[in-house]
Design brief:
This is Dihydrolipoyl dehydrogenase family protein. Keywords: Disulfide bond, FAD, Flavoprotein, NADP, Oxidoreductase, Redox-active center. The chain folds into 3 domains: about 210 residues, FAD/NAD(P)-binding domain (3-Layer(bba) Sandwich); about 120 residues, FAD/NAD(P)-binding domain, CATH 3.50.50; about 110 residues, FAD/NAD-linked reductase, C-terminal dimerisation domain (Enolase-like, domain 1), CATH 3.30.390. Helices cover about 35% and strands about 25% of the residues. The strands form 6 sheets. Strands 1, 2, 3, 4, 5, 6 and 18 form a 7-stranded mixed sheet that branches. Helix 1 packs parallel to helix 9, helix 3 crosses helix 4 and helix 3 packs across helix 6. The structure holds flavin-adenine dinucleotide and nicotinamide-adenine-dinucleotide.
Length: about 475
């Protein structure tokens, strides 16, 4: 029987980080992946294809808008095949980095098949070969959660696993779920020419975002598709010709919506079934694996990372967790994970940047002694020159100016807000961002100008302000 220092089950963002890191430090590593090629959700059915589709759709949208503005005529339907090819090309270009071949070259033994616990140290692959692992990392990710809606099991629907394989664009689409998956892809498909309706049962869309951020996104998206928050789907049925009818309830009114296709984007379900977890007594947190801050499960030599644990379901978080597991499982350290400085970006247009606490969370956790700094993007020259003034920056600090949360909505917010992560990570105050020179007219001036407000508050108001004014009067 083959024996390893570390067995990784699942070759996605989390598992590949662990495997590459551990083998680099000299550990004997096995990686088990059930799909033909590693890469997981992010490469095959998540981040990469969605961002490629968003980019293709944005190009078309911008061309249409420009044509209209300059009095040109743009006629005909867009060829969806081009967007499809862009998606496949992006995946193909990144695949070699995550390939079986690359990992074998690194020295990892890659097994193709379903991994399942036989006991605490033995993993069975496809119910056949058994391998031994001194330490085992579960990195099996998640899949689309399918809500219990009457009739859904009898109709065809798309999920993130099938939407990127579509060869033709449906004329109309209903999306169930107004989270990042539903809104990013709903907007992209709308821009490519599909009539999109997004239904969400929550009182507001993007429920994890700061309340002041969401209206900007909602207003922008409503120009391109129909948004129906606070709406329950009671029943789905198939109509002749493949169309679907949804029976929905909004504000007590029973309505019907019809579309050519249905896309389920109603959250994620961790891949914990078929792993034999109950067999070895792994503790669960609902559907997720319960992990300590060292990313160990209740069985100390078994670790878990990525979407399979209930933390931050993002690629960069799975990567960060993977690095911590390398330190803990290879070197026997007890490093602990922290999500305090982990941002996320939702790639709608306008983009949403999110770091740390929202105002509501800050008030609940820190109290009302917090400071809020806000800036509208129409106060920033570069957004004015480019004609993209819709959006805001909002930073929440404690009384001493330490950043508790930083949020923004606007063109490219995911890029120009990153300096807030650096500042927060290294314990800098918001005012430090104001001391750094930003090129003019960069988008990043938006955060600098927000930070300037700290000094305006300090220097021109209160006792310090009065003293300074008195000094200047005498000095003159
Ligand atoms: C449409 C969409 C867009 C997204 N966009 C972004 C984005 O822009 N940015 C971002 O940060 N995140 C994004 N995400 C989230 C991101 O894809 C996930 O958080 C990330 O992939 C999780 O990594 P993971 O390693 O936990 O799981 P995965 O990457 O899914 O990897 C799990 C792997 O385990 C394998 N596996 C499962 N069970 C077994 C088994 N029993 N035996 C062997 N192999 C098994 C699977 O085949 C898979 O390869 C997006 C998600 C979706 C759905
Ligand atoms: N840019 C990014 O980083 C990015 C992009 C896409 C996805 N992701 C990751 O993927 C995860 C999953 O995204 P998601 O959008 O699928 O999930 P989500 O949980 O964020 O949102 C799902 C939405 O579906 C709604 N919903 C659930 N059941 C419903 C029902 N029966 N009827 C109507 N609405 C219903 C919920 O109210 C919620 O608003 C995210 O948490 C995120 O971590 C990240």
């Amino acid at each position: 029987m083959k024996s390893y220092d570390i067995i990784v089950i699942g070759g996605g963002s989390g598992g590949l980080t662990v495997a590459a890191g551990a083998v680099g430090f000299g550990a004997k590593v096995a990686l088990i992946e059930k799909e033909r090629e590693p890469g997981g959700d992010c490469l095959h059915t998540g981040c990469v294809p969605s961002k490629a589709l968003i980019a293709a759709a944005k190009e078309l949208y911008t061309a249409r808008k420009a044509a209209q503005a300059y009095g040109l005529e743009l006629q005909g339907e867009a060829d969806y095949g081009e967007a499809f090819r862009r998606v496949q090309a992006a995946k193909a270009a990144i695949q070699p980095h995550d390939s079986t071949e690359r990992f074998r070259t690194l020295g990892v033994d890659v097994f193709y098949g379903y991994g399942q616990f036989r006991d605490f140290h033995h993993i069975e692959i496809n119910g056949d070969e058994v391998i031994f692992g001194k330490r085992i990392v579960i990195a099996t990710g998640s899949r689309a959660a399918i809500p219990p809606i009457e009739g859904l099991q009898d109709v065809d629907y798309l999920t993130n696993e099938s939407v990127f394989d579509m060869r033709a664009l449906p004329k109309s689409l209903v999306v169930i779920g107004g989270g990042p998956v539903g809104l990013e892809l709903g907007q992209a498909l709308a821009r490519l020419g599909c009539k999109v309706t997004v239904i969400d049962r929550g009182t507001r869309l993007l429920s994890k975002e700061d309340e002041e951020i969401v209206p900007y996104v909602q207003a922008a998206l409503e120009k391109e598709m129909s948004l129906m928050p606070h709406t329950a789907v009671h029943k789905v049925e198939a109509l002749p010709g493949g169309r679907k009818r949804l029976y929905i309830e909004q504000d007590g009114n029973m309505l019907q919506v019809e579309a050519d296709a249905l896309f389920i984007a109603a959250g994620r379900k961790p891949n914990t079934d078929r792993l034999g977890l109950s067999h070895i007594g792994i503790e669960m947190d609902g559907d997720h694996i319960a992990a300590k801050r060292t990313l160990q499960t209740n069985i100390p030599h078994i670790y878990a990372v990525g979407d399979v644990i209930k933390s931050f379901p993002y690629t960069h978080a799975a990567g960060m967790e993977g690095k911590i597991v390398v330190g803990n499982a290879v070197f026997g350290l007890k490093r602990k994970v922290s999500y305090d400085n982990v941002p996320w970006v939702t790639y709608t247009d306008p983009e949403i940047f999110h770091l740390g606490m929202t105002e509501k969370e800050a008030r609940e956790q820190v109290g009302d002694e917090i400071c809020i700094y806000k800036l509208s993007l129409d106060e920033v020259d570069r957004f004015i020159t480019d004609g993209h003034t819709e959006g805001i920056v909002k930073v929440i600090t404690d009384r001493k100016g330490r950043i508790l949360g930083a949020h923004a909505v606007g063109k490219g917010a995911g890029e120009w807000m990153q300096q807030a992560v650096l500042a927060k990570h290294y314990g800098h105050k918001l005012s430090d961002i104001s001391q750094v020179v930003h090129p003019y007219p960069a988008y990043s001036e938006a955060l600098m100008k927000t930070a300037n407000q700290y000094w305006q508050g300090k220097l021109f108001q209160g006792v310090t302000g009065r003293l300074l004014q008195a000094y200047v009067k005498r000095f003159r």
